[in-house]
Specification:
The protein has helices spanning about 45-50, 75-80, 100-110, 115-130, 145-160, 175-190, 230-240, 240-250, and strands at about 5-15, 15-25, 30-35, 55-65, 70, 85, 95, 140, 165-170, 195-200, 215-220, 220-225. It is α/β, with parallel strands linked by helices and about 250 residues long. α3 (about 100-110) packs parallel to α5 (about 145-160) and α5 runs parallel beside α6.
């Protein structure tokens, strides 16, 4: 059975500048993978490329999803196949309520929507899962939201869309300890044997709540090192310089 996500020798440029320089990564169903790395290493470039953002140009390699080459698919086509991206910086949409936004998203992705009464029931259940007040549903999307509220809305969308592959781009960014705990709890409750999570983060702290099966380090546009959960603790203790030094010492081609 093929990996749910199989990234093969992926090279990506933005406005003519090479950012990713040969990324290889496999993510299987039922797995949680953490992708770490310093600023500028290409983490957000990878997440946007996986969802087909037109700004990010694949110059070499391919992306397989469930064994299918999706490298040329548009973002909405990937979403309909069960892929989901939680943004690092979610946009505000004044005038559009959370409830209407999510109901429209479900219809767009799944091709059909629940009846209003059934949708409201499901929405309330998922909001309770994330410890969200029901009044939240009538607010405008991210308009005046705190950092924690924005990230909880991203996870709420994930809960209602039920993707097979969730890519979470720095979901812990800007969260205080209470919001981090709530968001992490929501992620854990949504993880299961049929789906997979690729969690992109700078810091180890969210990995104290969301336990990854594998941790990967992205340096200079390539995955420089992969390991188990303890890898994140080592990075927290030693930083990224020791991996850079190991790369420099490695013989060419290794």
């Amino acid at each position: 059975m093929p990996a749910l996500l199989d990234i093969q020798d992926l090279h990506v440029s933005v406005e003519g500048k090479p950012i990713l320089k040969g990324v290889n990564l496999k993510v299987g169903a039922g797995e949680v993978h953490a992708l770490m790395g310093p600023n500028g290493s290409g983490k957000s470039t990878l997440s946007n490329t996986l969802m087909g953002h037109p700004k990010y140009r694949v110059t070499q390699g391919k992306i397989l999803y469930g064994g299918e080459d999706i490298t040329g698919l548009k973002p909405h086509e990937r979403a309909r196949k069960g892929m989901f991206l939680a943004f690092q910086y979610p946009a505000a949409i004044p005038g559009v309520t959370v409830a209407n936004f999510i109901r429209t998203a479900i219809k767009s992705v799944k091709g059909e929507g629940e009846a209003v009464k059934a949708f409201r029931k499901t929405l309330r259940e998922k909001m309770a899962l994330l410890e969200m007040d029901e009044k939240f549903a009538s607010r405008y999307v991210n308009d005046g939201f705190s950092g924690g509220e924005k990230k909880r809305l991203e996870i709420l969308q994930m809960a209602l869309l039920s993707p097979r592959l969730a890519i979470l781009d720095e979901t812990d960014s800007g969260l205080d300890i209470d919001a981090l705990r709530i968001v992490s709890s929501g992620i854990n409750k949504l993880a299961g044997p049929e789906n997979a999570i690729l969690l992109i983060t700078h810091y180890q702290r969210i990995l104290g709540y969301v336990k990854p099966h594998f941790v990967h380090v992205l340096l200079n546009g390539q995955i420089a090192h992969s390991g188990g959960p303890d890898m994140a603790l080592e990075l927290e203790r030693r930083g990224y310089d020791w991996l850079r030094e190991e790369e420099e010492k490695a013989p060419a081609g290794v």
